[in-house]
Amino acid sequence: MKKPDINKIINERSIELILGALMIIVVTFMAGNTEAISTKIRQEEAAVQTSADDNELVVTIDAGHGGIDPGKVGVNDSLEKDINLAIAQKVKVILEKNNIKVYLTREEDKGLYNDSDKNKKVSDLGKRCSLIDGWGSDIAVSIHQNSYSDASVSGGQVFYYAASEEGEKLAQDIQLELSQICKKIRPVKGNKEYYLLLNVKCPIVIVECGFLSNHEEAALLITDEYQQRIAEAVSAGIVAYLDKKQ
Ligand SMILES: [Zn+2]
Asked: Would the pTM of this model clear 0.85, i.e. be above it?
């Protein structure tokens, strides 16, 4: 019988020990790596969750004028900026009940200009546009009141950017709802000049709720009840438009 080669046995043992140690290192590394992978998955799940929130519909309501700019002054001395803000705030409450994320360009009687700005009107409108774009708005609705030299003229009207098909659809949906509230409603109208209509990325409309130069309409527009009815009509139009988009 051949005598066992001691050196060979020792070498084989060493190789086994080294392989064993290597296995332990590999398993430990993989376990660590698995943890890293599962952490990554959790992070990705969180990211998906965040982007689900990002998919929430965003509507910006812009209350026209504010601060030193009163807008139109009513025959009853009402100020357009106050009526715009009251209606905008009511629209926000209604839309939020419909699970829509709503931003207001202003929440108080304040223009969106800086006191140091030379042309406050331009800087005010520019700021409104950058807010609407910055919030990633799906649509924006700017609330205004009208006025005319002939006091007999009355009625609501919705304006959209003339080159925007979506803007026109949104205008029509709001106009249809307003026609249930306003005694008189004018056809939707495309416009190529209004700063706000030209300078935001999303579909945007300007809602002229009524004429402050008309005694009957001006009297209605200062009441909480009529403002609420207008806000409900504007909100219903917005929801109708968004429903068709989804
Ligand atoms: Zn206005």
From this structure: no
